[in-house]
Specification:
Shape: extended
Number of domains: 2
Helix content: 40-55%
Radius of gyration: 21 Å
Order of helices and strands: HEEHEHHEEH
Distance between the termini: 52 Å
Strand content: 5-15%
Number of strands: 5
């Protein structure tokens, strides 16, 4: 199973500026074609490479975030996370995540004595929890209006 790369490094000011400019140039050239051709001029001889447009859109998104000074982590959809990595993604403690796993709120599998959480299952739980939070907030807003607050 694919393991995610969870290393996050904040871009320097120079990297952020370069990312912002590169993002601007690449985004202006994106079309709905199947691929994008990039010309690489570094090295012994210039070369043109073909890049799928979906990968270019992802690169533009990464450069946008870097241009804002944000660290970026790339996690394959089929990745499996350790319980600590999954807890970090939800911004909860590892024991809280274990409780969610044991209650059956998030699907996981065991590898020996260790639990592994699929990224897809984690994101499904996160979407459901976010939707429940938004619904509760909407209910509170209606209640506040009824009370005239």
């Amino acid at each position: 199973m694919t393991r995610p790369t969870t290393t996050r490094v904040l871009p320097s000011d120079a990297d952020a500026a370069m990312a912002k400019e590169t993002c601007r140039v690449l985004a202006s050239r994106l079309r709905d074609d199947d691929l994008v051709r990039l010309r690489i001029v570094d090295g012994p001889s210039p070369e043109t490479v073909k890049v799928p447009v979906a990968a270019m859109r992802l690169l533009v998104r990464i450069l946008e975030e870097m241009g804002r000074g944000n660290a970026v982590a790339l996690i394959p959809v089929r990745a499996e996370l350790t319980t600590q990595e999954a807890a970090d993604m939800l911004n909860i403690s590892r024991p809280s995540l274990i409780h969610l796993l044991d209650e059956g709120n998030i699907d996981y599998r065991r590898v020996g004595s260790h639990r592994r959480v699929r990224f897809e299952a984690l994101m499904k739980y996160k979407r459901q929890a976010d939707a429940a939070r938004r619904a509760a907030l909407a209910d509170l807003a209606v209640y506040d209006q009824e009370l005239g607050i």
